[in-house]
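Task card 7
Instruction: Convert sequence to structure tokens.
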Amino acid sequence: MDNKKTKMKTKETIKKILLQKPHLRDNDNKLIAAYWFRELRNKGIESETITALDFLHKYADNELTNAESIRRMRAKLQEENPTLRGRAYAIRKGKIQDQWRQDLGYENNK
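Output:
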């Protein structure tokens, strides 16, 4: 499978996960675990039967999607589609904007 098809498959899978499980929008570790769970299942590997050592070998041998690739694709999806953002984004964005306004003195002009 070429790189473009792999990226599209990864993107679509992450989008499905974010839509089905909104609580994963704010937790990359849980999102990555959910992605790998699906990936293993699609390869015919039951998560209950694979050993940690076998999992680590598959990851080290690039048989599983890289965690950083999943994280970057989540960020890209959330940038492109604000409805996929979690609650932490709104909280973080609000605090940053409030601090920015305060630093520029806009809060004094209310």
